[in-house]
């Protein structure tokens, strides 16, 4: 309920809003630092994501279209995102027969780098999906070259609407295992967040664990996960329960084995507006959630009219506030990565993949 009051910005005096105001006074203030940086060497690109390698290099990934092919491109930065250079390509497929996107890079503790992504097949004539896959590729030279590793999840396609799988997210668990999160459709109105675990670096995967949406008819998806204060995890995701999209969260006290405590993170302002595609990062004890919303343009044609915003929490996700706009409309698919205890990079598709440094003070 506290998250609901914070999201709507209600001014009435109540215990909830009083607690929210305490959080506002105690939380840090996010602000933009410098100007947006093109991650793509002017080649365009969408759905940017990045993580640090052990040598201090930032490894970024995004999807782009080159002539008649969709590509997953890797870039690197040696100066914490001030500049980016092209590194290589992890996958290339024809645009008329495939849907290649949602790439997410992560280095394993042993040094191997993984890239999770959606790799769907389409009928070149009808455009129908004929197969859905979440694939994993690996690189043993910090992202310069790539090879196929595994397919943790797959589903058959068909004519008209067929439930699919989307938006993988990788995380190294405390026990040395690898966690994969993704979205799984059950119907046009119902989608769950799934977790799978690998104990051998992504080569083989355990059974599905549904961590959100199992007891609701809701479209839960685009999940991001962060560790809170070294003790528990928080997962954020978009959710639509018969109306428009909002941002929700769940938490885990056992490093992802079990999940619960579903809460509202953000409700868009106005009527009939959406907030979606969130990601979350812990920056020196402050949780920062990126998301996109059409609450300012009110086009009611999601995802058209979306801009990219940010909210923070200084109390582990109990309350949220300090909303700022990072990229104006039209901007989609934001992501985040921490730089240090006081700053992070906010990445999004704003006429191509861009990164913007955010400072907490």
TrEMBL record:
Classification via InterPro entries: Sialidase, Sialidase_sf
Sorted UniProt keywords: Signal
Entry keyword Nucleotide-binding: no
Signal sequence segment: 1-18
Pfam families (alphabetical): BNR_2
UniProt-listed CDD domains: Sialidase_non-viral
Record-annotated membrane-spanning stretches: none
Domain (Sialidase): residue spans on this chain: 70-235
UniProt entry tagged with the keyword Transcription: no
Protein's name in the database: Sialidase domain-containing protein
